[in-house]
């Protein structure tokens, strides 16, 4: 008699890598953590999920089977090669840290967007990408509350989805009002999952607002855009809620206007503000933005004298920056970033957001002194180790950089 061996996938099967051990058991959540030894790690795509007609979720597992630790609302910087070019992009983690064996990003395909199309067309189960450790301060952890108001629009849903999934998994009794705006019902990301949550946890209330119908579905819910009247009718207790907002810049500015006009205490307001209004002055278009919809970028103008943040009466000094690994030395003025000077000299150091957020341009300063004005893309312990973000560092002396 042959006894069939069930329940244990054969060794070498893709499903036995990473989160499932050799005995077919899910690894415990206290397994080794990703990024505990290095800021960069290799991920393997485990699954690709169709979320809407133009949005996919990419589920990754750590190549070494480690678990992921992050705070809901944070993002990771992924690095991959597109058409022979190394690209770095920041993506919000849409999965919750309460499901630590996988890390998911959710990406909308944008017409003409090189990276979103590449992801949709080329990333399949088994695809490997590099990822930098999670960063970002738009998180629940700093603002525990009894009542939340989550406001999102379009792809901006991803950080608040991670927050909502986390609160759901933890069985939180917080009163959560989640108001998401979309163009049509077919564009509502995570629609079914969000609609199912209140059935299990009535303290979660989900409201979708659509601008119009989809050809195959007439929208029967709230129509139009977020407004003072809509918000006040949905949340008469607005002033008791802590608000998290993420979406396109015009949407967030409208939300801010509504809240301010309603007399809301803006100390309880948090927003994700990946803005590219201040772009590199080198003439190079930004390579990346967090979850950006890749709308055609406005040409970035060369900086003129008046656009510098250094006062015209302040003397501008020029220092030298030696990039030790590449063996190049470039001139860098005190009114430009080290990254801009490098790009202008034809170097191509890794960079992404150019705003001191993503950590892609992080390197070690071997000697010298800089004025670094970052936006959370580097940790205090890294600063103590002489690491700098060259996109937001201006020289205060001659520099030697490990790049
Ligand atoms: S390029 Fe993002 S922190 Fe420098």
From TrEMBL:
Region Disordered, annotated ranges: 1-20, 279-308
This protein's UniProt keywords: 2Fe-2S, FAD, Flavoprotein, Iron, Iron-sulfur, Metal-binding, Oxidoreductase
The keyword Iron-sulfur belongs to this UniProt entry's keyword annotation: yes
Pfam families given in the database record: FAD_binding_6, Fer2, NAD_binding_1
Domain FAD-binding FR-type span(s) in chain numbering: 38-141
Domain 2Fe-2S ferredoxin-type: 319-403
Cofactor(s) named in the record: FAD
PROSITE patterns assigned: 2FE2S_FER_1, 2FE2S_FER_2, FAD_FR
Record-given protein name: Ferredoxin
């Amino acid at each position: 008699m042959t006894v069939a061996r069930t329940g244990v996938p054969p060794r070498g099967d893709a499903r036995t890598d990473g989160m499932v051990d050799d005995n077919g058991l899910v690894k415990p959540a206290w397994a080794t953590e990703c990024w505990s030894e290095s800021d960069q790690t290799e991920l393997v795509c485990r699954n690709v999920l169709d979320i809407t007609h133009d949005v996919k979720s990419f589920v990754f597992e750590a190549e070494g089977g480690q678990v992921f630790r992050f705070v809901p609302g944070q993002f990771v910087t992924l690095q991959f090669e597109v058409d022979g070019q190394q690209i770095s992009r920041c993506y919000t983690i849409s999965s919750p840290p309460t499901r630590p064996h996988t890390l998911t990003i959710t990406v909308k395909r944008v017409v003409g967007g090189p990276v979103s199309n590449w992801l949709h067309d080329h990333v399949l189960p088994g695809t490997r990408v590099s990822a930098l450790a999670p960063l970002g301060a738009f998180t629940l952890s700093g603002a525990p509350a009894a009542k939340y108001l989550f406001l999102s629009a379009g792809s901006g849903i991803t950080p608040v989805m991670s927050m909502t999934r986390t609160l759901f998994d933890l069985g939180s009794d917080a009163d959560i009002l989640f108001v998401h705006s979309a163009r049509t019902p077919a564009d509502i990301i995570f629609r079914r999952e969000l609609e199912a949550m209140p059935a299990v946890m009535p303290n979660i209330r989900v409201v979708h607002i659509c601008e119009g119908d989809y050809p195959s579905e007439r929208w029967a819910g709230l129509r139009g855009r977020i407004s003072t009247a809509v918000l006040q009718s949905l949340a008469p207790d607005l002033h008791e809620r802590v608000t998290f907002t993420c979406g396109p810049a015009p949407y967030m500015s409208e939300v801010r206007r509504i809240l301010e006009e309603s007399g809301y205490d803006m100390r309880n307001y948090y927003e994700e503000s990946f803005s590219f209004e201040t772009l590199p002055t080198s003439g190079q278009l930004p390579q990346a933005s967090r979850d950006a919809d890749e709308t055609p970028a406005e040409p970035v103008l060369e900086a003129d004298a008046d656009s510098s943040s250094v006062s015209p009466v302040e003397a501008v000094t020029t220092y030298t920056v030696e990039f030790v690994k590449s063996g190049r030395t470039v001139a860098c003025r005190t009114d430009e970033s080290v990254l801009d000077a490098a790009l202008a000299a034809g170097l191509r150091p890794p960079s992404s957001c150019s705003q001191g957020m993503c950590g892609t341009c992080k390197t070690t300063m071997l000697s010298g002194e800089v004025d670094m004005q970052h936006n959370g893309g580097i940790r205090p312990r890294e600063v103590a180790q002489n690491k700098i973000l060259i996109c937001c560092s201006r020289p205060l002396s001659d520099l030697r950089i490990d790049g």
